[in-house]
């Protein structure tokens, strides 16, 4: 039997950072995640690197910003860039992946000994299929260390019960998808504050919550399978989402709700049950060095993240007072370069793409929410202004997150907040240069113009 920690990394697909009630969301929607948070440590200021699935996941498994690992959009990680499983294999780990297999490219670079596709997992939505696959993996590798990345495809579109679900999946695939253990009605829970309260928005949010519950059903199935394997006491369990909800002002952007992720780590004997870090900003980039340390591997030089073990052990780290995030490319390969820096009070976004004649368009505008907003804009000036801003933006956005957590009032250009804007511009410029961002020089020029 191995003396190294097993690692179970569970990811959700397009789950908002505040959807589990343990992270401020509606009560009871994700009881398994809430239970895991009660057994481990929840990081309330955790962010992913980029709010779209493939770049987000590639950043996790390289520990590098997308413009440093080559996977800025839906393309492979660059040749010569090491991935987490390279290091784990060197010390005897067996690595497997359930779902989202093609969202880490090239697939053969990761050396998976087990890889099971979305279709084999009930379109990535069948808890029993995940349970069976995980049970087999745990049993096969009971006497050697293992790393299993289990990726739920919920609550990615199409949402449960939506017309899009029927249109996108054929009868055979629909038959593979079970109902969630609980479904929600429009208006049962308020829509997020960054969206208007419109009937179409409420209906789609209810479908999203139902899909989130089915994601939680998958989490529960995986945790039960781990318990039944007898290996839970020597397994580190991590849960997080790859990015925010696939609706306007969330996924494929750089807002707070775009990149905030509900990160939970349960490390037997190390995390204090029910611990919550509400102070420090952490990144999904930090998982790579954390897991290297857990596996007894020297942390590779040059990573963009750093280990979370100090925070897990209760230390305070004064230099974790900022979160940086990026966006490059939509799933349709349209470039909308964005950069963001947030602290405990303010969020600053630079939209390098925002220019006269350019209109934003992304997958988060599919479905009922954007349609409802666009329809209401004809009669509601507030919604009309929100719609117009979304497709055009401004080169700079500044939000006072303590009073405006939903980023509704852009303060860029307001003289009363010029000192804050100046401070964050300087912070942004320094960070772009220090990480080798290809837009660093242009950002300096734009500031000087």
Automatic annotation (TrEMBL):
InterPro entries cross-referenced by the UniProt entry: Alkaline_phosphatase_core_sf, Sulfatase, Sulfatase_N
The reply to whether Hydrolase figures as a keyword in the UniProt entry is yes
Annotated SUPFAM superfamilies: Alkaline phosphatase-like (SSF53649)
| Alphabetic keyword roster | Hydrolase
Q: Which GO terms describe its molecular function?
A: arylsulfatase activity
Residue ranges of the TM segments: none
Presence of keyword Ribonucleoprotein:
no
Q: Which family does it belong to?
A: Belongs to the sulfatase family.
Q: What is this protein called?
A: Sulfatase N-terminal domain-containing protein
């Amino acid at each position: 039997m191995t003396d190294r920690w097993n690692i179970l990394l569970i990811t959700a697909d397009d789950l908002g950072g505040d959807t589990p009630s343990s992270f401020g969301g509606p009560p009871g929607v994700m009881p398994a995640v809430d239970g895991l948070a009660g057994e481990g440590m929840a990081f309330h200021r955790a962010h992913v690197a980029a709010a779209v699935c493939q770049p987000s996941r590639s950043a996790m498994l390289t520990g590098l910003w997308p413009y440093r690992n080559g996977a800025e959009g839906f393309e492979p990680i660059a040749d010569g860039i090491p991935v987490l499983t390279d290091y784990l294999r060197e010390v005897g780990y067996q690595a497997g992946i359930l779902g989202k297999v093609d969202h880490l490219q090239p697939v053969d670079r990761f050396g998976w000994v087990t890889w099971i596709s979305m279709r084999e997992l009930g379109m990535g939505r069948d808890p029993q299929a995940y349970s069976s696959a995980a049970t087999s993996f745990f049993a096969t590798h009971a006497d050697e260390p293992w790393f299993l990345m289990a990726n739920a495809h919920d609550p990615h579109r199409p949402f449960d019960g939506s017309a899009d679900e029927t249109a996108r999946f054929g009868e055979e695939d629909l038959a593979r998808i079970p109902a969630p253990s609980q479904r929600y009605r429009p208006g049962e829970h308020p829509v997020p504050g960054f969206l208007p309260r419109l009937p179409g928005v409420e209906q789609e949010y209810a479908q999203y919550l139902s899909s989130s519950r089915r994601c939680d059903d998958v989490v529960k199935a995986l945790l039960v399978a781990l318990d039944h394997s007898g290996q839970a006491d020597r397994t580190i369990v991590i849960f997080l989402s790859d990015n925010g909800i696939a609706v306007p002002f969330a996924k494929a952007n750089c807002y707070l709700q775009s990149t905030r992720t509900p990160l939970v780590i349960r490390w037997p004997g190390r995390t204090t049950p029910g611990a919550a870090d509400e102070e420090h900003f952490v990144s999904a980039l930090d998982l790579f060095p954390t897991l290297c340390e857990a596996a007894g591997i020297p942390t590779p030089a040059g990573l963009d993240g750093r280990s979370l073990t100090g925070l897990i052990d209760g230390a305070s780290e004064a230099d974790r007072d900022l979160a940086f995030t990026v966006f490059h490319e939509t799933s349709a390969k349209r470039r909308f370069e964005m950069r963001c820096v947030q602290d405990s009070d303010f969020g600053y976004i630079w939209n390098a793409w925002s220019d006269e004649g350019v209109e934003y368009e992304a997958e988060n505008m599919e479905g009922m929410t954007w349609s409802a907003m666009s329809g209401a804009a004809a009669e509601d000036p507030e919604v009309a202004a929100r719609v117009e801003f979304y497709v055009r933006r401004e080169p700079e956005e500044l939000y006072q997150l303590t009073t405006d957590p939903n980023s509704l009032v852009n303060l860029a250009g307001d003289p009363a907040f010029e000192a804050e804007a100046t401070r964050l511009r300087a912070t942004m410029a320094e960070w772009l240069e220090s990480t080798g961002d290809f837009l660093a020089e242009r950002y300096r020029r734009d500031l000087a113009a």
